[in-house]
Write a structure and sequence with these properties.
- The structure holds two protein chains of two kinds.
- Helices cover 32% and strands 23% of the residues of chain A.
- By secondary structure, chain A is α/β, with parallel strands linked by helices.
- Chain A has two domains: 251 residues, P-loop containing nucleotide triphosphate hydrolases (Rossmann fold), CATH 3.40.50; 84 residues, Gyrase A, domain 2, CATH 3.30.1360.
- In chain A, the strands form three sheets. Chain A has a seven-stranded mixed beta sheet with strand order 6-7-8-3-9-10-15, with helices on both faces. A four-stranded antiparallel beta sheet of chain A has the order 2-1-4-5. In chain A, strands 11-12-14-13 form a four-stranded antiparallel beta sheet, covered by helices on one side.
- In chain A, strand 11 and strand 12 form a beta hairpin.
- In chain A, helix 3 crosses helix 4.
- The longest helix of chain A has 18 residues.
- The radius of gyration of chain A is 26 Å and the shape is elongated.
- Chain B folds into two domains: 259 residues, MetI-like fold; 196 residues, Jelly Rolls, CATH 2.60.120.
- By secondary structure, chain B is of the alpha+beta class.
- In chain B, helix 6 packs parallel to helix 9, helix 6 runs antiparallel to helix 12 and helix 10 runs antiparallel to helix 12.
- The chains are: A alpha/beta, B alpha+beta.
- Chains A and B meet through helix 3 of A and helix 11 and helix 12 of B.
Chain lengths: 411, 493
């Protein structure tokens, strides 16, 4: 049985612009003594997932539901006060992003490490401090650091203090939220080795949040690739990093600069979608180089892209001559022209779609082009969000569904 | 004050503050004031201050006297006050029942008694007192008190004035009507009898020109010439003067004592006011009063405002809203008119005024500052960390948020002390302060009602005003140095 099981976790925030769907149906399991890396771009919902697990909610929560089970017990059913006393730091603790600021500047670090003990165990100050000292020693901090203030410590030492603080209550699950960002590579390596060693010695299970694929591959047994509040691909780190199934994972891996390579690192065109209005169908389809009919194109997106294309390619040989383009409903686009007859336009547009499919994936969504009395109606394929399919190694992509009918793990 | 400085503890802030120039000067000035506060109860115990409102303790001081060190800056030597103290206390005046010299334990009078049985049991008592006069200006006033014991028969005294040039004049002869311990009071400068005696003496002996404005304290100390009756033309005569009191009593049971004062024109370090009070005592006591009032007021008010502001902002919601609106309201209320109203209606003491100030300062500008800082601090990752490891809201407030406000609280207290010193002085100046305590403001108020600015009594204005300025500047400098430490843009490199 997994030590942590997250199922259909939702965390939406209410903002002035609308509801931000930061975590939108995330599910994963974490086995005892293992670690799972949540990887993704900024704003993909990694930290929000951690917040949702630890119930660290801001005021503007719009939707917070799902199942978070630790050892078979659903934490979501606990009252806030029970959650505070039973879960926080007893079951799950967290190492915060940016250790530089995760320590109160006015308090000696030893006391900060001891604070959870004093809160949860009503431990006497001396006893708590002694335990804090032990915890700090276990992360490799010299004894004298107990009485130091945060500004007297280096970045790596501060990071160790924050890790000691997370471990002082001996929880079984530790969430590591970008534990090595803002550290230099040597310190980063030190901290990573420390985390690995602690995992082995103490039997800890980690949820490791990072955007650094190298670190994720170093520490994680499993990896979950997040995009726009959803998990796109999840599986054993060896497999996901070696033969990514999802096009996004592949692109992410390709964007890592390589030593001794003449090729410039690839990048993914476009920006992550606005999470108040995530794209229908597969959320990645707008930036996906291999998107096709089923990925969930809608008329509005089609019109936007067509207009963009028109601006750059107007007047060129073979570009259909139309004056107006407008979306009608979700699956129909209407083209109008002054110069040509609808039939001519329909023919040239169909020809353009046929030839441009490979360079402009959005053209693949065209199901039919029909000439009407005054205009041309372009009907689009219906799409749907792809389910996360597979057993141990799962990906959410229609291409994967088509390519592999059943779950296969290449050797 | 911007919240952008490096995060420093209280000790670090104090050390840094002393390093700045203004901080050093401010601390030095404050140390001087504190030294004064500590020394004052030794120099002038509190019962001296209680006498501030009464007349008796100050009777031996000249009125409107400048500080005595003005001599140093002038070629003219000003006369000091000469007090010829009484020999006994009013209650213990003894009967003169033996012929011969008598002792004078309390003063330096020479007493000789002569008892004569023949003429209806008469007692003759002579009291003499010598003093040297060396000033270049005339004394300001003369006064004598006598205490007499007698039976059914009255007692008569006459006062003789012997001058260094050998001449002498009988100033007056009078029958005593009061019995000790009640004193017979002889305001020599104002007595018509004395003036007439001096006029006829000066005119007949020295052929002096008559004057409409004869002042005994001038003519008696003037060189014998024609102009000696006119205060504008008289010239001081230096030398040894002798005061002789001759008493005649009948019935055998006669006792007598006297005290004479020749008031000078200078007194003490800080001069005197219209009530002859020693301004130095008032000024010295003004420091602890001003400091205690202002520092208690500013400490209590700033702490209240900061803590309430921090609590309100931290818990947020309607608590925050109510606190902020209350702060807006109290900020626009003019406190001085309200205090004047309260002072007029209730005539409260200084502590009641302090209480009213605290009530009206329970939220205010510091609440706003606390809010701006807490709004920023509450978003810091370590607060999130504290929430995540299960710390309760109250614990986070006291352990993590309030310590961050502490250095700013120091600066705010230091910066708001001057305004409370001013406020107390303003109220006292308007006569609405505590009437029982001498404060800088009330001395200034007395000076104003005593027309000091128009009559040239500069010491009456300069010293209390200087005290207010000194204390204000000390705290302002301290505040600025804190500001410099906490606001890196103002740092001295």
């Amino acid at each position: 049985m997994p030590i942590l099981s997250v199922r259909d976790l939702f965390l939406h925030y209410r903002t002035r612009k609308g509801v931000v769907r930061a975590v939108d149906g995330v599910s994963f399991n974490l086995e005892h003594g293992q670690s799972i890396a949540l990887v993704g771009e900024s704003g993909s919902g990694k930290t929000s997932t951690a917040s949702a697990i630890l119930r660290m909610l801001p005021r503007n929560v719009a939707k917070y539901e799902g199942v978070v089970e630790v050892d078979g017990k659903n934490l979501m059913e606990l009252e806030n006060e029970e959650f505070r006393t039973q879960v926080r730091w007893r079951l799950i603790s967290m190492v915060f992003q940016g250790a530089m600021n995760a320590l109160s500047p006015m308090i000696r670090v030893g006391y900060q490490v001891a604070e959870p003990l004093m809160i949860h165990m009503d431990a006497a100050k001396d006893e708590a401090l002694a335990k804090a000292e032990a915890a700090m020693e276990s992360v490799g901090l010299p004894r004298y650091t107990v009485n130091r203030f945060p500004h007297e410590l280096s970045g790596g030492m501060k990071q160790r203090v924050v890790i000691a603080m997370a471990l002082v209550m001996r929880p079984s699950i530790v969430i590591l939220d970008e534990p090595t960002s803002a550290l230099d590579v040597m310190t980063q390596a030190n901290i990573m080795n420390l985390l690995k060693q602690l995992k082995e010695d103490e039997g800890l299970s980690y949820i490791f949040i990072t955007h650094d694929l190298g670190l994720a591959s170093d520490l994680a047994d499993h990896v979950a690739i997040m995009y726009a509040g959803e998990i796109d691909e999840i599986g054993p780190a060896d497999h996901v990093f070696v033969h990514p199934k999802h096009p996004y994972t592949g692109r992410l891996l390709a964007s890592v600069p390589r030593l001794r390579s003449e090729d410039a690192p690839e990048f993914i065109p476009g920006a992550p979608p606005d999470l108040t209005r995530p794209p229908p169908g597969c959320r990645f389809h707008l930036r996906c180089p291999v998107a096709f009919e089923k990925c969930g194109w809608v008329a509005e997106e089609f019109v936007d892209r067509l207009r963009l294309l028109q601006m750059t390619a107007q007047g060129k040989e073979g570009f259909p001559r139309f004056n107006e383009v407008e979306a009608r409903g979700t699956q129909m686009v209407v083209l109008r022209t002054d110069s040509d007859s609808p039939e001519t336009l329909a023919a040239s547009f169909a020809e353009f779609v046929k030839s441009g499919r490979e360079t402009n994936p959005f053209l693949k969504s065209v199901r039919s082009v029909d000439a009407k009395t005054k205009a041309v109606a372009v009907t689009l394929h219906e799409g749907a969000p792809p389910p996360l399919i597979g057993e141990e190694w799962r990906a959410a992509c229609w291409l994967v569904q088509e390519a592999t009918a059943h779950d296969t793990i290449p050797a | 004050m911007a919240f952008s400085g490096p995060m420093l503890g209280v000790r670090a802030v104090l050390i840094e503050a002393v390093r700045t120039k203004s901080g050093l000067v401010g601390f030095a000035m404050l140390a001087l004031l504190l030294g004064m506060v500590i020394a004052v109860p030794i120099i002038a115990p509190f019962n001296v201050v209680r006498a501030w409102g009464s007349i008796d303790p100050w009777l031996d001081n000249p009125r409107f006297a400048a500080p005595d060190w003005v001599d140093t800056f002038s070629a003219q030597k000003q006369p000091r006050t000469v007090v010829m103290t009484n020999c006994f206390t009013p209650d213990t005046v003894p009967l003169s029942d033996k012929t011969g010299p008598e002792r004078c334990p309390g003063g330096s009078w020479t007493r000789v008694a002569v008892k004569v049985q023949l003429f209806g049991n008469a007692t003759f008592l002579t009291m003499r007192h010598k003093f040297t006069f060396t000033a270049d200006a005339f004394p300001s006033e003369m006064h004598m008190d006598t205490w007499a014991r007698f039976g059914s028969n009255g007692t008569q005294i006459s006062l003789n004035w012997t001058r260094p040039d050998g001449s002498y004049v009988i100033l007056f002869t009078s029958a005593l009507s009061r019995r000790a311990p009640t004193a017979d009071s002889f305001p020599l400068s104002q007595m018509v009898k004395v003036r007439e005696a001096i006029r006829s003496w000066a005119m007949s002996t020295y052929n002096a020109t008559d004057s409409a404005n004869i002042k005994p304290e001038v003519t008696l100390f003037a060189k014998a010439d024609q102009g000696m009756l006119n205060p504008n033309t008289a010239v001081p005569l230096k030398g040894e003067y002798l005061l002789t009191l001759e008493v005649v009593g009948f019935g055998g049971d006669v006792g007598f004592d006297a005290k004479a004062v020749v008031f000078g024109t200078v007194f003490g370090v800080a001069g005197t006011d219209s009530e002859r009070r020693d301004l130095l005592i008032g000024l010295l006591w003004g420091a602890p009063v001003a400091l205690a009032f202002a520092s208690i007021a500013s400490t209590v008010i700033v702490l209240l405002e900061i803590i309430l502001g921090a609590i309100a902002t931290w818990y947020g919601g309607w608590v925050d809203e109510v606190t902020q609106r209350a702060a807006d309201l109290l900020l626009i209320l003019p406190i001085l008119p309200i205090l004047i109203l309260i002072a007029i209606v209730y005539s409260p003491g200084i502590w009641a005024i302090l209480f009213v100030l605290v009530i009206f300062g329970i939220v205010g500008s510091s609440t706003k500052i606390a809010r701006s800082i807490v709004l920023q601090v509450k978003e810091e990752p370590y607060i999130e960390a504290a929430i995540s490891y299960g710390a309760k809201r109250g614990r986070i407030l006291f352990k993590h948020i309030l310590p961050r406000l502490l250095p700013y609280t120091f600066a705010l207290i230091a910066l708001s002390v001057p305004s409370f010193i001013f406020l107390e002085a303003s109220l006292s100046f308007l006569g609405l302060g505590d009437p029982t305590l001498p404060t800088w403001g009330s001395i200034l108020g007395d000076a104003y009602t005593g027309s000091a600015p128009f009559r040239g009594f500069w010491w009456w204005i300069a010293f209390p005003a200087g005290g207010i300025i000194f204390a204000t500047v000390a705290f302002a400098l301290l505040g600025y140095s804190f500001d410099k430490v906490l606001n890196p843009r103002l740092r001295e490199e």
